[in-house]
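Tip: read the tokens left to right.
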């Protein structure tokens, strides 16, 4: 009897073990089925059969497909992100400059300013309505012949101030609480650097700096410079259309480093005025409403640009200074080589024009010159540049 009793216990234990295995198998099978169905719905066939419309379905109930799952993510490189931030910072301050339309009939369509009517672009400098553009945009038009458009609102021009040295035009409109750009430093521009420009139409071009000290050299006369006229510009890759005239040149921080002033695609030349060429006069224009620049009165050659010069750098006075100019009053003469201005060397990075234009009328400047092989010091008092 003991034998049969032990046998029954063994059979009972075996049955219990089998039952436990079956239960666990059912549980794991159920969860495996659920997970498998979820995987199939999401990754293999995301469209339920109930949403698939067959030819016989009722056409009165159009198919409403569910929106695909979307994840907002950045798919570019870090550089693309910087470009996007640069655009976002400057775009709200963009304006368009248009030839003013003559009053027409009652048809409102006749007063719409189209992209083909765009004279050029500008950008807002101050929240009370000072705008920067280039004189090639406004040309020789009287201020009542063109208008500024900002956010589909048309503004008359209250005042125009032109800086003849840089070609920059300051426009004033009657407005307040406007968004403004941030001014950068054009001395930070380097060869090959990425740059961005935008226009009033919302179009964007990402370009590169080809030459940060570009100067035309088509003839020998291009080497003759003046202390009262800038000769250098920023040369860009020539993939910019004429719809960008007057647009800001931006660095990747969204700061304005220049203004597009020349677009000649036939010659492959697109240039911008460096912002440091007009930065020194900006506050004076905003305060006094006219340009105030220092005057020296010299015509010279930049020796750093002449390959066969025995003097590697400096400004060689090329023409006799006119009488009653600061240069003539200081006793400067043809053949003198100016090598420094207040200790700052005259070289390929800072020519004489750039160095002189950082001063104000009435300032006294120390010039180190070489005359007949001997070094001399001259003191010159700068005057106000005549209009």
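Filled-in amino acids:
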């Amino acid at each position: 009897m003991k034998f049969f009793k032990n046998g029954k216990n063994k059979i009972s234990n075996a049955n219990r073990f089998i039952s436990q295995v079956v239960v666990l198998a059912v549980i794991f099978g159920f969860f495996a089925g659920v997970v498998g169905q979820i995987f199939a719905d999401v990754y293999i066939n995301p469209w339920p059969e109930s949403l698939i419309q067959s030819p016989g379905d009722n056409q009165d109930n159009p198919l409403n497909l569910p929106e695909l799952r979307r994840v907002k993510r950045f798919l570019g490189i870090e550089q693309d992100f910087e470009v996007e931030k640069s655009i976002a910072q400057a775009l709200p301050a963009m304006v368009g400059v248009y030839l003013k339309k003559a009053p027409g009939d009652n048809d409102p369509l006749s007063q719409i300013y189209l992209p083909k009517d765009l004279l050029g672009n500008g950008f807002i400098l101050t929240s009370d309505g000072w705008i920067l553009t280039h004189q090639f945009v406004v040309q020789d038009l009287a201020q009542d012949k063109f208008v500024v458009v900002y956010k589909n609102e048309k503004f008359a021009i209250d005042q125009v101030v032109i800086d003849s040295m840089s070609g920059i035009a300051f426009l004033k409109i009657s407005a307040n609480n406007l968004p403004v750009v941030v001014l950068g430093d054009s001395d930070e521009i380097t060869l090959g650097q990425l740059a961005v420009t935008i226009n009033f139409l919302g179009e964007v071009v990402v370009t590169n700096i080809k030459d940060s000290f570009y100067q035309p050299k088509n003839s020998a006369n291009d080497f003759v410079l003046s202390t009262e006229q800038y000769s250098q510009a920023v040369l860009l890759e020539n993939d910019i259309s004429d719809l960008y005239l007057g647009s800001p040149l931006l660095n990747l921080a969204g700061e304005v480093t220049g203004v597009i002033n020349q677009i000649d695609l036939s010659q492959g030349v697109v240039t911008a005025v460096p912002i440091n060429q007009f930065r020194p006069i900006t506050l004076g224009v905003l305060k006094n409403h006219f340009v105030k620049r220092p005057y020296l009165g010299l015509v010279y050659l930049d020796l750093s640009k002449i390959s066969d010069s025995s003097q590697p750098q400096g400004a060689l006075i090329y023409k006799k200074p006119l009488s009653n100019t600061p240069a003539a009053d200081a006793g400067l003469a043809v053949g003198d080589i100016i090598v420094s201005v207040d200790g700052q060397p005259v070289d390929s990075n800072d020519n004489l024009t750039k160095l002189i234009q950082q001063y104000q009328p009435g300032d006294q400047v120390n010039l180190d010159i070489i005359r007949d092989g001997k070094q001399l010091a001259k003191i010159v008092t700068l005057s106000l540049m005549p209009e």
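The first strand starts at residue 94 and ends at 99. The chain has six helices and 23 strands.
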